[in-house]
Amino acid sequence: MNKKVDNKRSDNRLDINLTIEVTLPSGQKAQLSTRNISTTGVYLQRSDLDLPPVGSVIQLKLNHELGFGDAPIVNAKVVREDEGGIGVQFLEQD
Asked: Among 3, 57, 61, 85, which is 20 to 30 Å from 43 by CA?
């Protein structure tokens, strides 16, 4: 018998694989792939890189895959981690 797991997210997610440039708290930059994205956050797939722990603030920049010119840099907070990667929430921009 399969149990249905409640989805507590308030926004719909779009399953999409995009390349995101991530700047870690250390200043190190890495290219990670998304698994899904919503208006409030994104799930980044695990790579060989040690991903930052929950509570860390990172910077994200979407690469030019969508053809919109220069992408803004967005601050995001790591809100969850699992064996596949990390979920980050976009932070308000000043």
From this structure: 3
Distance CA(90)–CA(76), nearest Å, equals: 4
Ordered domains of the chain (ranges, CATH) = 14-90 (2.40.10.220)
Q: Partners of 77 in the beta sheet?
A: 57, 89
Distance CA 40, CA 59 (A): 14
Q: Tens of pLDDT along 2-38?
A: 444 345 556 789 999 999 999 999 999 999 999 999 9
Is the backbone of residue 68 left (phi > 0), alpha (psi -120 to 50) or beta?
A: alpha
DSSP element (H, E) containing 91? none
pTM for the complete prediction?
0.81
